[in-house]
Amino acid sequence: MVKIGKNILITVLTVAVILGGYLGYARYLAELQDRNVEVCVDLNDIKKIAAFENKPLSALLKEIRELGVSSIGIFEETLPDANALGELYYAKGSGILRLGKFNPRFDKLSDQGIIKDDKTYIYLPSDIVRKRIYYHFKWALGEQNINFIGNDILEIDKAEEELREIGLGISEAQATFISGLGFNIIPRVWNDTHYHELNIGPKIAALQDFDKIIFEGEEILGYPNNLRALGAALKQYRVNFGNIEIISQYGKSTLGGLVGNDSIRVHSIAQDELRKISKATAVSRLVRAARERKVKLLYIRPFLPPYTEGSPVAYNLDYLKQVIGGLQQSGLTLGATVPVPGLDVSGRQILILGSGVVVGALLLLNSFINVPIIFMILLFLSAVSGIAFIGLAGYGLLLQKGLALLAGITFPSLAVISTLSKKGKIIFSPWDCVLIVLNIIAETMIGVFLMFGLLADYRFMLSLETFAGVKIALLAPIGIVALYFILEQEKGSLVGRLRSFLSTKVSVIILVIGFAALGALAILIARSANFVLPVPELEKSFRGFLETAFVARPRTKEFLIGYPLLFLAATLLLRNKKKWLWVTAALGTIAPISVFNSFSHIHTPIVISMTRTINGLGLGVIIGTIVASLANRFIKT
């Protein structure tokens, strides 16, 4: 019965791992098909650079196009913009009356007493511009506030100050000019409280000739109450949402969930950041975003004087050239990007993968408490039933995140505990330490495969959703491993073993080392996920060296902390000196935790995560072998 029960659980785990591997492979194939990166610059920025040197805008844009830049970001036109371009003329009624005769069209209306001082008047000689301006004001203000006087003058029953910031679509003249140079156009649209669920659709319909939109400012159009209408309009008119990573925009997570796979990851460096970093740093950051995080669109802001050296035009052309060269060297293709068909994980697949995670959790529990096989089967069936119930209740995403987190806690812990629970050897060999560490990483990869499957859908690949509980997944395995080896030091009851451990005498030097280790762990936690603490310049330089030396930079906490401590723990195990395993093994768990965490960044290509892991393991084995050899010499026989 015991053997049959164990075989059932192992079979379930095996099937789940195979499914996770299959879904991971499907994700890998999708990543291979998606190698395009779109490079975009901002028209307003390019105008500024050209103006600094009195260089013709068209000539500069042609040079930019020849470098490989395929798109131009254009902000919606406003009344002042259109006025500056000569597309219209507008004034307050009070201003027209005060100036007297200055415009024949307004003069006639003024003589007839039609001009009202509290209204705004817009002269629109062009039919196509008139139509666009009229409809945008109609959608934003309501038809009752707009009136045509004759064929070409629009009277608006609003103060001019209220009209200045209303977006009026993309200028036909600018669109024709930019398209004629071979660029795609990406509209930049900002939030406007005039738009709501009844008029946001026409607003997007007017932009349907463009395949994507990037929203400007701290808020997405329609935030906070009309995002659902915006999402529906984007999908209806097949306009993709450019989701800018890192930069905070209220409403972008909600909108990302609404549009689903019709979302494109965008990376940009804001002007205030460019003032603080070098050109080389900016180039590295942009290329890394595309190579390592599958960002599909780089919206490149230029360096502006006084933050340029020499000619602003030449400086920024070289900047663009370096970025594009870095992309090409990374094997990426330049050109317009569109969303690729996304992956989905079905409810049945979640159930199978979740069953595998449950088996791992039960095996970890069995390491602490000898659970009879019949109870393990009952616990397994209860947990699987719970997973099925939660899934049927419509909480599939919650299940994916929760089970992935459980896998991240369970398998690094189980890998270290099961591997370092073996008996020691009389003869020490560094090769034995290597095999022990490789076994720990191999067992951790079981959890990685399950996580691959659980998070193999477009929401995680596009970073619309992320692996939840990063800090819990970092801390919990360390605590679990420490507790296990504390309890293993003594026999008897749980309370008795804990009391015996707490009565252990330690020297002052051990206390100092312990507090230092706790401080280092606190820094590690604060630096995990989104950085809370700043990165020292020395570490930045070291990271830069690693990034240059390796295709994918290995994680320093793996090869400088985790692996050396795992090798030290392996040495203590082999020499049968297990008293301090609760410290060395627990802190060494940082290595498998970090490996799991690397693969949990689903927006990062699998090849990059795998390369980073292999690089870290290689360096860790070299450093760890040295640590193990030195430790063996100082351990008393």
UniProtKB/TrEMBL annotation:
Taxonomic superkingdom: Bacteria
Keywords of this entry: Membrane, Transmembrane, Transmembrane helix
Transmembrane segments: 350-369, 376-397, 403-421, 433-456, 468-487, 508-526, 559-574, 581-602, 614-635
Name the record gives this protein: Uncharacterized protein
Organism of this sequence: candidate division WOR-1 bacterium RIFCSPLOWO2_02_FULL_46_20
